[in-house]
Amino acid sequence: MSNGDNDFVLSIRGVNKTFGGLQALSDINLNIEKGKVHAIIGPNGAGKSTLLNTCIGLLTPDSGSITFGGKDLTKSMTPHAINQAGISRVFQTPQIFPELSILQNVMIPAFAKRDGAFSFNPLKALREEEGILNEATTLLDDLGMGEGAHHHAGNLSRGNKRRLELAMCLIQHPKLLLLDEPTAGMARHDTNRTIELLKKIKESGMTKVIIEHDMHVVFSLADRISVLAQGAIIAEGTPDEIKGHPKVREAYLGSAEI
Ligand SMILES: Nc1ncnc2c1ncn2[C@@H]1O[C@H](COP(=O)(O)OP(=O)(O)O)[C@@H](O)[C@H]1O
Ligand SMILES: [Mg+2]
Q1: Cβ–ligand 1 contact at 182 (below 6 Å)
Q2: Alpha-helical regions (H) of 56-121
Q3: Domain membership flag for residue 229
Q4: DSSP secondary structure string, 10-59?
Q5: Is 183 near ligand 1, meaning CB less than 6 Å away?
Q6: 172-214, pLDDT tens digit by residue?
Q7: Distance from chain centroid for Cα 108
Q8: Model confidence pLDDT, tens digit, residues 60-97
């Protein structure tokens, strides 16, 4: 099936990143296959968020390349340009507009995607508003957040803020969705609802990279898993391969739990 670079949505090659004396990423090579869910797991401080940040232009690697849609994202592409090119990301800490309604929060990224943040066209926006409103409403219903859609987003629980942020990504129809611990801080029933939603999106064929601590979430969703420890990839494989991998148990789990 994999017969060339064309199967890969994202290719990370030889990426290094240091912070002062700390080698946060060490010669990372990673291919993300189209339509798949690729999980990145590893202990706290392993470099998972740093890796995602290099993919969205928030951090520039010291060396290496990250290719997406034929372009090297590390070569002077702004976070906004990368987002326009088709990568959306759910942050580890929710980034929402607290003073706006939940519904407005979901609508804004749709406008930003279409017009670009600096060339906002109000007439075009008005014409498109109804379509975007309908889509945002449907998305929120799917997320079980439809009822309070006109409430201030700032009042949401942490778990619901993360779900809202997910809706803000999904309305952009990204080619690649990056999720940094999408269920962090959620109660089990909220986690389960989010997994169900992510499974539903999986069926849509959207490529996803997910960073997650919760092994239940990882093994429910991932087609492929890479294990990061101290800035290096120490194992990669299918969930079954990773479950049985001795290096993974040793470096990451420290127990026979998975
Ligand atoms: N902006 C930064 N400046 C300095 N050190 C950083 C910065 N971001 C991350 N680090 C360090 O890099 C390492 C990897 O961090 P991070 O990517 O956040 O790990 P993870 O997401 O796997 O928990 C940690 O040791 C962290 O303290
Ligand atoms: Mg992190």
Answers
A1: no
A2: 79-85, 102-115
A3: yes
A4: EEEEEEEEEETTEEEEEEEEEEEETT-EEEEE--TTSSHHHHHHHHTTSS
A5: no
A6: 999 999 999 888 878 888 888 888 888 888 778 899 999 988 8
A7: 18
A8: 999 999 999 889 999 878 888 898 899 998 876 668 99
**Nearest alpha carbon to residue 134 among 176, 103, 158:** 103
Residue 12 lies in a domain: yes
Q: Is the pTM for the entire model greater than 0.70? A: yes
Which residue's CA is minimally distant from atom 26 of ligand 1? 45
Domain that holds residue 208: 5-96+160-253
Decide if 126 is inside a domain.
Answer: no
- Would you say the CB of residue 45 lies under 6 angstroms from ligand 1? yes
pLDDT tens for 12-27 read: 999 999 999 999 999 9
The CATH number of the domain holding residue 60 is 3.40.50.300
Residue 47 Cα to ligand 1 midpoint, Å, equals 6
Ligand with an atom nearest the CA of residue 45: 1
* Ligand 1 atom closest to Cα of residue 211: 21
